[in-house]
Amino acid sequence: MSFRTEADCVGEGRTREARRLAAHSDWAATPLGPRSQWAPQLEAAWEIALECPLPVALLCGADFTMLYNDAFRDLLGSKHPSAFGQSARKVVAEIWDDPKVGPLLERAYSEAEAFLDEGTELRLARGRATDEDAGTGLREKPEDGTDVGYYLRSGSPVLAEDGSVLAVLHVIVETTSAIGRARAVAKLAALLAVAVTVDDVCKVVLRQAMVAFDGLSVSICLPSPGPASWRMARRHRIEQLSPDEERLPLIWSELGEEMTSLIALAISRGEPYLSENGEIVAVPFRAGGGGQSALVIQREAAPIPHDVVAVLAPFRDLVGDALGRAVVYDAERITAELLQRTLLPPNLPQSDAISIAARYEPVSEGTVAGGDFYDSFFLPDGRLAMVIGDVVGRGVMAATVMGQVRAAVRGAALTNSEPASVMNALDRVVWDLDALWPVSMPLGTPRARPGMAFGGELFVTMLYGTVDPETGEVVLASAGHPLPALLFGLASRAEGAPRGELLTMPVGPPLGIEGVRPAHHLTLGVGDMLVGFTDGLLERRGEAFDEGEARLLDVVADMPPGSPRSVAQYIMDSMLQTSGQEDDCAVLAVGRSPEGHRRAAIVVPPMPESVRAARDWAREQLVDWRVGDGDQHTIVTGISELITNAVLHAGTESHLTMDLDTGILAVTVADSGNRGEPLLTGADTMAVRGRGLSLVRAIADSFGAHRTSAGTTVWFEVAVELVAVPVSGRTGWPGVA
Q: SS in 3 state form for 116-149?
């Protein structure tokens, strides 16, 4: 007695349809003739094709009439089963003239010459039939359903007793997935070569691992900087991220016990862990710095192909090396950025009459601190001092000098606030600093690096001025600094002023070079704004400086009305998007507020219940300010999202401020936390990062976020309409007859 194994049953099932088609086809109507007249060698070849587990087609006679096994039908798509018994010339008409298809098969038939083709790229049409082929399900030329695949092919002539060729036994193995995996690894290497941060590296790994390992989801797991031992970022195959979402930082969550145990097992073995059903692949790797990390791929339950296992090792090595470099880069970048931002003021002064805001954007390449700086402070007589400048050079020395110069500006201005006095005092500071550095660290010494000393070439450009909040009178002086822009408000434009222009004023030599820096006087009207900036905003390699000035004026001409905060953000974003960024840059905007400017602020504790309290507070203020119901809903929704974001990611108290100014309500939420490593406990890892902020961006007229030495500030603005209220028995505006 014999037993039938499971493999026997599977094999019988695999060949059942092909046998049935062959048995019920009208072969007399084909060039092959009746089945009873087939040569024994042809019958034997057909039996071999039926039993072979690989895709096999038997192409018979000079017409290449197709018989194929069940494994072959997947290559044909919707052409099956109508292709059975048809001429191969018609079945694959779209590729028959390819030198590696029709001519190769015809030579095998005519010259009894076997062939092996180890790598063919073919574009097969596997979609719907054309109208003329509706009866057979075939088409002569592909219209849709066409895809590119890679195939390993062999052709063996089937000979009759007299040596003539009866057919060609054509074996085809699709290698598309294997080649795709190899290409994914090659693309991984290319993308990792330009990915510099940990976040960039992880995004590349998640995308390419999805392709290389047929992942339903891919998780990259790194040691956690928080109380948890591991943190995880995940990408799902079903996620379709927009370009804006791709640029957002990854969202990290804590690992569950099951995932933690799985990673621990893989790390203890020192080799990839593959589950028995092929559903889970865990790949441990060691980053260049020595830290253990892991990649976990969830697949459909199926045996893991050998080519998947083959690419695990190179994939692991590439990721480990890239992460090692990225960890070092991030540490240096964070240190440089922290140094830079610590030397800048965490907050700028505000008043009912004057609003001021600044933006600083470090260059995206490198980890070196820069010398751009800005500041603003009230003088003893009530005037507002403003300063923006740039220490020539980059590196720790430039940043250190920048901090000392900024501190010296305050000391000099509080003694004598006149521009000439302040700049003369700063000349002496710069001369002393220039003399100090070469003595302590001259260039050419073993410890010296470019940018660590100035060798008599230290100088600083700076724009300094004072503003009288009551009258709008401004006194400005420039020490070699780019000319500021003057933006005109609605009242000035009603009298014929342009949207904006570059200020015409004398420019003296940079600090550290003797010379006269004449003071320039102007008056800011209600709603007018003065915008200073560093040269990194304008200068681009290969173009004249005035081209950058023209580009700035074009940006200003199209700029919507807004507060100094939105204006600084708009100018920075627009200038960098249109021409890129080659150096650090800063923008400082000072505006004169009209009468009726209102401000309210509270401190929000880092607790979930604070979100509702903040909403209630905001709604009460908006009602008091006569903001309409629809605008109230928009503003309160935005506040809710920003406070929730701060509670989740910052973990510190937040300062919530609302400003109402000429029909524009600005909301600011500033925290003192570090958002660089967002870590959510119990978060849904299917969520796409930044949905809350995306909502705020969608409902607001202006939106922005930036980091300072004190933490992160997120803000938005909404143009509002004030509602009419009863006044003395009639409808009108409060305080208006």
A: EEEEEEEEEECCCCCHHHCCCCCCCCCCCCEEEE
Domain count, the chain: 4
List the one residue out of 448, 480, 446, 439 whose CA is nearest residue 463.
Answer: 480
Terminal C-alpha separation, the chain: 110
Q: How far, CA to CA in Å, does 439 sit from each of 444, 455, 571? A: 12, 9, 41
Domain that holds residue 332: 179-337
Task: Check whether residue 520 and residue 605 sit in a common domain.
Answer: no
What pLDDT does residue 11 have?
43
571-603 burial string, b = 16+ CB within 10 Å, else e? bbebbbeebebebbbbbbbbbbbeeebebbeee
In a domain, residue 165? The reply is yes
Closest alpha carbon to 616 in 596, 592, 590, 643: 643
Q: What is the distance, to the nearest Å, from the Cα of residue 209 to the centroid of all Cα atoms in its chain?
A: 18
Q: Give the C-alpha separation, 602 to 653, whole Å.
A: 10
Tokens of 662: 């000429």
Residue 356 resides in a domain: yes
Let me know if residue 736 belongs to a domain. no
- Residue 511 belongs to some domain of the structure: yes
* H-helix segments, 455-598: 490-494, 545-557, 564-579
Task: Please report, for the domain that includes residue 155, its CATH number.
Answer: 3.30.450.20
Cβ(597)–Cβ(533) under 8 Å? Answer: no
Question: What average pLDDT values come out for the chain (737 residues) when binned by 10 residues?
Answer: 34 66 90 92 93 92 94 87 93 90 93 88 65 33 61 92 93 83 84 84 88 86 75 84 67 82 86 84 75 83 76 85 84 66 73 84 60 89 93 68 86 92 90 62 42 58 93 94 90 81 92 90 90 90 86 86 82 78 84 76 86 92 90 91 78 82 82 50 41 74 70 82 56 32
DSSP 539: -
Tell me, yes or no, whether 117 and 141 share the same domain. yes
Instruction: Pick the last residue of a domain from 174, 208, 243.
Output: 174
| Final residue before a domain boundary, out of 281, 302, 337 | 337
Closest CA to 571 of 589, 596, 547, 584: 589
Taking the C-alpha atoms of residue 208 and residue 229, their distance in angstroms, rounded to an integer, is: 26
Is the Cβ–Cβ distance between 453 and 442 less than 8 Å? yes
Q: Are residues 165 and 191 in the same domain?
A: no
Question: Could you tell me the two tokens for 515?
Answer: 């010379």
